[in-house]
Amino acid sequence: MNNVQVLQQPITPSTCNKPIELYIFIDPLDDRSLAMQLTLRKLQVEYGHYFTCRYVLSTELSSLNSMTNRMKGCVTGAELDITHPALPSIAIKAAELQGKRAGFRYLNKVQEVTALKTRNINSHATLIEIAQHVDLDMNEFMADFGSKEAARAFQCDLYLTREMEVEEIPSIVFFNECIEDEGLKVCGSYNYEVYEHILAELLGEELIRQQAPALDELFTRFTTLTTAEVAEIYSINEQAAERELKKRMLQQKVERLMTDDITLWRAK
Predict the structure, then answer these.
(1) SS3 196
(2) What pLDDT digit, counting tens, does each position of 61-98 carry?
(3) Which family does it belong to (predicted)?
(4) Which residues pair with 106 in a beta bridge?
(5) CA 107 to CA 176: how far, in whole Å?
(6) What is the pLDDT of residue 71?
(7) What is the chain's Cα-based Rg?
(8) In the 8-state DSSP scheme, what is residue 77?
(9) Which domains are present in the chain?
(10) Cα–Cα distance between 247 and 241 in angstroms, integer?
């Protein structure tokens, strides 16, 4: 792999007891970042006991400051709606102010709407509806969405992207629990086995794979899945995965969301 570089550990390392931390640099609206989700979800299912994830939003934008000034008017009702490519990233950061899990739920829903392409994800109104759908505290979210804190959090992600010289999205930087050790930057997307090998190398031991949960339980962890993701996680072909998903659709446990480009399955 030519796109592998060694980096210094960030100034603020993870304090959790899992030995590996992944810094995942994504553009939440980019198709390549959406495609990497399949690999990441399988890694989380099989080896999530070894690592935690931190998502770094890396959408390059030149007019962030002027856009956030307009948002203040929007939040107070001076504008009915605005659209801007920075809005989804700032909304994700606003959701993260309610906790990591809230931010993760919101990010997943943003990616779902982006994949389906049925709504304008750059719309302020759409992003408010997503917050309601994932059960965020709406008073907090509305205040945070138009705040300097959310804009600064996004700017910090852009700074971290530049500081680590991440020039290709998506990319992953692997850090272990020792702050003196250097991180490993992997630019671009690779086969699942490559990331599996990197985890084993960083840990210096043979990995213990966790068994995938039952499909119903998987939908409590990832509320929306593609047929390909289910097939990959359970190491079956897509035809077998689709049969299992259709059974649950008949049982009214999941619903199918289809467009010309993609089919998603969502827990009901």
Answers:
(1) helix
(2) 544 444 444 444 444 444 457 888 889 999 999 999 99
(3) Belongs to the SpxH family.
(4) none
(5) 25
(6) 45
(7) 19
(8) T
(9) 1-58+166-210 (3.40.30.10), 66-143 (no CATH), 215-267 (1.10.10.10)
(10) 10
Q: What distance in Å separates the CA atoms of residue 186 and residue 17, rounded to the nearest whole number?
A: 23
Among left, alpha and beta (phi > 0; psi -120 to 50; other), residue 89 is: alpha
> Pairing between strand 224-226 and 51-57?
unpaired
φ/ψ of 226, rounded to 5, equals: -90, 165
DSSP string, 31-56: HHHHHHHHHHHHHHHHHTTTEEEEEE
Question: What is the rounded CA–CA span in Å between residue 193 and residue 204?
Answer: 16
Hey, which residues does 26 pair with through a beta bridge? 57
Task: Give first-to-last CA distance, the chain, whole Å.
Answer: 41
- Angle at which helix 64-75 crosses helix 148-163, to 10 degrees, equals 160
Q: For residue 259, give the 3-state DSSP assignment.
A: coil
Q: Which of 81, 25, 90 shows the shortest CA–CA distance to 63?
A: 90
Q: Contact, 229 vs 38, CB < 8 A? A: yes
Is the C-alpha dihedral spanning 133, 137, 139, 141 positive or negative? negative
Amino acid at 143: A
Residue 82: C-alpha distances to residues 60, 70, 73, 124, 128 (Å):
19, 8, 10, 6, 12
Report the C-alpha gap between 128 and 83 in whole angstroms. Answer: 12
Mapping DSSP to helix (H, G, I), strand (E, B) and coil, where does residue 156 land?
helix
Structure tokens at 95: 């959701």
